[in-house]
Amino acid sequence: PQVIRLADYAPPAWLVDEVSLIFRLDPAATRVQSRISFRANPAAPGHHDLWLDGENLKLLSARINGEARSVTPGPEGLRIPATELPEGQFLWEAEVEIAPEGNTALEGLYMSRGMYCTQCEAEGFRKITFYPDRPDVMATFRVRIESELPVLLSNGNPTAQGAGWAEWHDPWPKPAYLFALVAGDLVAQSNRFTTVSGTEVALNIWVRPGDENKCAYAMDALIRSMRWDEEVYGREYDLDVFNIVAVDDFNMGAMENKGLNIFNSRYVLASPETATDQDYENIERIIAHEYFHNWTGNRITCRDWFQLCLKEGLTVYRDQQFTGDMRSHAVKRIEDVLTLRARQFREDNGPLAHNVRPETYVEINNFYTATVYEKGAELIGMLRRLVGDDAYRAALRLYFERHDGQACTIEDWIRVFEDTTHRDLSQFKRWYSQAGTPRVMVEDSWADGTYVLRLHQSVPATPGQPLKEPLVIPVAVGLLGQDGRELQPTVVLELSEPVQEFRFEGLPQRPVPSILRGFSAPVILQRDQTSAERAVLLAHDTDPFNRWEAGRSLARDVLLAMIARDEAPSTAFLEGLGSLLRDPALDPAFIALALRLPSEDDLAQALHEAGEVPDPARIHDMRRKLTHLRAEHLAEDLHRIHDAMASTGAYDPAADQAGRRALRNAALAGLTHLDQGARASRQFATADNMTEQLGALSALLEIGAGADELAAFYDQWRGDRLVLDKWFGLQVMFAAPDAAAETAAGLAAHPDFDWKNPNRFRAVIGGLSANAAGFHHASGAGYRFVADWLIRLDPLNPQTAARMSTAFETWQRYDPGRQALIRAELERMRSAPTLSRDLGEMVGRMLG
Ligand code: HT7
Ligand code: ZN
């Protein structure tokens, strides 16, 4: 397979000023006419061939400046030699035929339950028509859609419409990956937004008839996002309309097409009865994320796909800030770090580790990863910590001013910070080109009122990168007295050498250090900490992240000691939790997070990090045992909390109520271990919202009960696709390790299992890989089941198959028996006759 390299980047030979498209929609034979005005790129002097990307297109006709051309496209596109092209500029016209109903890859123009929709990022536009499908070619688009379907949408503003047709114009130059078209029998929930400068914008969320009463929260989140981007980043919306469409068959979460965002319906539709608080939070976050792309992604886009983190890292950072502002900064930071460690640290410490800005790829879809997105966002947060809030604001102002309308690189991004602060950021730039999670090892000493922190940094070797250079790491530190008083408020230390000392003088006593406050850098902190120090931090740290972190590391160590030597959990640990449960000043959402034990996969990661081989079955048993013991010890508090957190008044998805429900469900999960599910059955029977219904059902399934509730749940929700996904997913995720693969196989044979729908596929097959002990069952049944389904899905939907193959990325952690089983499955996938480029690349990288 062809490897694409950042080092080979060359500017496009031909630029496009304007594109005009006519779509005559038909499921089996859609006709697409294109008129594209090309102009020679002054940045690529000389007279060059014209290369147009195109895949699976039937070319019906082609003309240059009105003259018919006979062209024979290859499998990836067509080339017109320079000798056959006018110099300077010309008009290309073509007509192609495509078959959206047969497009199961859900890339390009495809159909989802009778509705036409598109997905063009990263390289889907080439499945619609011949075009220079690369992000540094930006053009304005005019689109005419002809179809009998009632709603016909594209990017930009509507310009005209009649029976069976509609026309759209997008005045903002954009790359083809932001193109979108939707046609369907849809209804809108509508609203209006007046921008800060007084422009009226029509807002519409388009859904299937019957779903219109489930869009209110998404609309509210959209309006709040628009206002927030004006207030916090000074960014105003720039079209007369903003449309969002919910689609059932979708490979990812959502897509930021200019003026026409397309969403997986699970990130739009919500009602209290059908969506959990977590669903609501996800909707708010993803609506905001896609909207924020209008500036960080669309107005300023990426020069090439290696620069993906330029738009994704920044936009994730912005959506994290937004959620923090809407809800709680402390809780949001903890949630984000949990995700980062679970997904990105896992990726960074295995065979799929790659730079935030990769330097090679075979299939770009394989690089929409936690490293590009979540670590990319951490880099923005670190830059801000290093330069300060005011400089960050000034740098962003300069970024928008200087680069509006351009396709940019990470160099452009770093330069605005350098120009704003007059600081050399070349060492910081290594974060973009060096894979792997840095380790920061801490030593300290104390003498004569001076406390010295000695920090060592190192980055382990990753595939293709044996040696690493030191990074600039912002380490936020505060110091507490033994009584919990703060002796030194937060300072940001800049660790830039392999080893560096930092001195704190004039202290009255040896302090308890609170290091990496707010998780100021995406690193693994290595430090021997006494339980007494942890207890001080857990009880008193003024930094909420580190307060939570103290409890988290206590829980991890308790679990590791149980796993290693059956050691009983210390009373100090249990009592520490008890004090949190009894602290009336704490946010319930924070307490719920403090009660959450490290996941089985987190524990496997911790054991691997410590040089040990994780045993998934033992991890599962010990984690369950601790849940049980902890519930026994804290039973009184858990009862009190479960009663006290019961809802009063109408359901509200906002943070206050959601935090109370999260804590209530956490208490219930513990109590269910003690009462065989009596309370959970009552909660299930009386719940008037999905958060409590699902909380009760999960608690029951976790102890191996809940058969009646599961059946009742199916009867109640069999008509709701999104809720049914939960029914499928829960059963697999909570299945006992011995029964997990069999449960998944049973569900895959269920009449409601639609394996071509990515949400349903992810619920069952992804559900099994999320059940660590079930997936890693020593029989290999879990591995076999997942591999069987990936091999089956791959020829139809390679993008989703490749993404889900990351279930196997941790294989080198395990014992030789499991490694052999996984290797055999990876090799079986690699030799599948239908293996796609997408899955082929992933499996190849995992096998090394
Ligand atoms: N920019 C988008 C990433 C994306 C995508 C979305 C849906 C389906 C396929 C896709 N390939 C790439 C989503 C985002 O980050 O906002
Ligand atoms: Zn994004």
Task: Describe this protein's structure.
With 848 residues, the protein is an alpha+beta fold. Among the domains are: 301-433, Neutral Protease Domain 2 (Neutral Protease, domain 2), CATH 1.10.390.10; 441-457 and 467-520, Sandwich (Immunoglobulin-like), CATH 2.60.40.1840; 718-848, Peptidase M1, alanyl aminopeptidase, C-terminal domain (Zincin-like fold, Alpha Horseshoe), CATH 1.25.50.10. The strands form eight sheets. Strands 6-5-8-3-2-11-14-13 form an eight-stranded mixed β-sheet, with no helix packed on it. A hairpin with a 5-residue loop joins strand 2 (14-24) and strand 3. Helix 14 (616-633) crosses helix 16 (655-675) and helix 15 (635-644) crosses helix 16 (655-675). The longest helix has 22 residues, at 544-565. The protein is globular. 50% of the residues are buried. The mean pLDDT is 98. Bound molecules: (3S)-3-amino-4-(1H-indol-3-yl)butanoic acid (HT7) and zinc ion. Residues 289, 293, 312, 315 line the site of zinc ion (ZN).
